[in-house]
């Protein structure tokens, strides 16, 4: 009976911890909606409003009047989707090569790749801008998509994941059956590493969606603004309508939540791969 009581107590503590953690995680989104559904005057009062108001539709209408919200949302979708697909393809292909193929200089190239992860991305801002300017891609979505098509972290992640998830015996069996390297990658490796791809895809989509600095540098025309840059233009010089800004921010956050919910199961499988041993 004592052991049963201890197990129940441990479950109660565990569920209590999970509930508190979930509430703390959801609270920023709730508070964002509370501010976005009230007026700025109500937020500035003390104590501030802590329950949703009835002004969300009015604040959202102000956002639509000030910026091309859906146009910026579409630009962010195009950029984030294109970058995510290219990162998944090229990084998984490179990860397959680094983990399962033997070629001269493989380990040295991989170490060099890892070394690039220690370089702050801000150092490449000016050289990248000069290259984009020479190509004539300023105010073009390609200026944001092309430099982000492959990432060192993505290659490292897929290399480690493929190394642990795809045994060499499976690769050798495919070669005996006459599969080329690309067909082995496409038909054997990719289906086996879908959780890893989903995890990398979510990280890449969220990172690209929230990217602000580089799009701000190369996208000056309002017609190609991403949602993050468009929301920035809601700030006035002398007055900041926090309710309007937070209502737009809340709406811009919803697509990320939808993407995470769609790939939630694959994401959890990817980050817990190898946590349980037979």
Explain what the structure shows.
This protein has 278 residues and is mostly helical. The chain has a domain at 67-233: MetI-like (MetI-like fold), CATH 1.10.3720. 73% of the residues lie in helices and 0% in strands. It is built from 15 helices and no strands. The protein has helices spanning 2-36, 40-44, 56-66, 69-100, 106-116, 125-135, 142-145, 152-165, 168-176, 181-192, 194-210, 213-218, 227-232, 242-262, 264-271. The longest helix is centred in the N-terminal third of the chain and has 35 residues, at 2-36. The chain starts with a helix and ends in a 7-residue tail after the last helix. Mean pLDDT is 86; it is low at 274-278. The chain crosses the membrane at residues 12-33, 77-98, 110-129, 141-158, 185-206, 242-263. This is Cellobiose transport system permease protein. One of its GO terms (cellular component) is plasma membrane.
Summarize this structure briefly.
With about 280 residues, the protein is mostly helical. It has 15 helices and no strands.
